[in-house]
Amino acid sequence: MIEMQGVFKKYPDGNDALKGINLVVDQNEFVYIVGPSGAGKSTFMKLIYREEKPTKGQIVVNGFNIGKLKQRKIPYVRRNIGVIFQDFRLLPKLTVAENVAFAMEVIEEPKKVIRKRTNEVLSLVRLKGKANAYPSQLSGGEQQRVAIARAIVNNPSLIIADEPTGNLDPETSWGIMELLEEINFRGTTIIMATHNKEIVNKMRKRVIAIEDGVIVRDQERGEYGYEV
Ligand code: ADP
Ligand code: ADP
């Protein structure tokens, strides 16, 4: 479902963030992206959801050649990708339910569908009781669960998570990982960048290490591989 061939990314100021990435990720894989700060992990993820364009090389996501994508086609690709960030990025003036519903309103789903699906995903992340709360009234773990609900509400085939547990304590982080595992179990591909050694070593999924813009390791049932 994701294929990169000879992918380079040079930022306008001259930073070579990625220097020749080749990889294939199949539907329903769970992949950890590890590596030192500044290695290129975020850039790698941004290329997949077309936040950034490659300078060179080919990236195919769900059959779309996304480096060559026309501007008006971008929403079609993004609709199929849920993105989760370390800092949650919820809309502070909208309630929990409104934050989730908003992702469906932008693709003009009917009101009835929106109400039903919002309830469904809030149950899945166990936040039905907080539907009318505002993000500032929630703990960090709860805010991240809202972000996950928003990311999955349109049934994406792929979830990109950039350090989703980076702001959470260990116990809360495990709760988030259980949710992501469940979502993966239901058929969604997950690509997650992380510095969390305990999580990577316990879960034993595919691990791709990026250093200085290149893939230096790609293991099935891999390990974190760095001292913290
Ligand atoms: P990581 O996520 O592994 O910390 P990044 O992908 O954020 O790495 O960064 C890779 C390299 O690209 C770093 O040298 C970083 O400073 C640089 N970089 C990241 N974003 C930008 C940007 N928008 N403009 C210029 N350089 C950037
Ligand atoms: P955690 O220990 O997971 O960080 P908190 O101590 O922040 O959690 O919150 C515990 C519970 O209290 C959560 O269910 C959260 O939604 C609720 N809560 C925290 N702050 C507020 C607030 N300002 N208004 C309403 N509920 C709150």
Automatic annotation (TrEMBL):
It comes from the Bacteria. One of its GO terms (molecular function) is ATP binding. Its main location: membrane. One of its GO terms (biological process) is cell division. It is found in: Cell membrane. InterPro entries: AAA+_ATPase, ABC_transporter-like_ATP-bd, ABC_transporter-like_CS, ABC_transpr_LolD-like, Cell_div_FtsE, P-loop_NTPase. Residues 2-228 form the ABC transporter domain. Signal peptide: none annotated. It holds the Pfam family ABC_tran. It is a peripheral membrane protein. Keywords: ATP-binding, Cell cycle, Cell division, Cell membrane, Membrane, Nucleotide-binding. Belongs to the ABC transporter superfamily. Homodimer. Forms a membrane-associated complex with FtsX. Part of the ABC transporter FtsEX involved in cellular division. This is Cell division ATP-binding protein FtsE. The lineage of its organism: Bacteria, Bacillati, Bacillota, Bacilli, Bacillales. The gene is ftsE.
